[in-house]
Amino acid sequence: MKPVEIYTTPICGYCTAAKRLLSNKGVEFTEYNVMTSPEKRTEMTQRSNGGRTVPQIFIDGKAIGGCDELFGLEGDNVLDKMLA
Asked: Where do the structural domains in the chain lie, given as residue ranges?
């Protein structure tokens, strides 16, 4: 399975939903809390080409966007292929 990274904050409902979807699919991910690590917020913004909202999700190093995009990939039956 390809590596998944997700930039989050603990007060973000969209972050929780995205993490729940990934966990329910058995996907292990690396989580970065941008609230407690300001340098991670800067890193997130750079890696996502200016994305400032959380979550920002990366699959195999590629930015896929946030929660809506993650659920869109799942709804289009493409997420499993991206993760494989």
From this structure: 4-83
Q: Within 13 Å of residue 77, how many CA atoms lie on the same side as its CB?
A: 0
Rounded to whole angstroms, how far apart are CA atoms 76 and 49? 24
Give pLDDT < 50 ranges for the chain: none
pLDDT value at residue 31: 98
Q: Kind of pairing, strands 4-8 and 62-65?
A: unpaired
The pair phi, psi for residue 6, each rounded to 5°, is -140, 125
Name the residue with tokens 């080409």: 49
Classify domain 4-83 at the CATH class level: alpha beta
Cα 51 to Cα 54: distance, rounded to the nearest angstrom: 8
Question: What's this model's pTM, rounded to 2 decimal places?
Answer: 0.95
pLDDT for position 82: 96
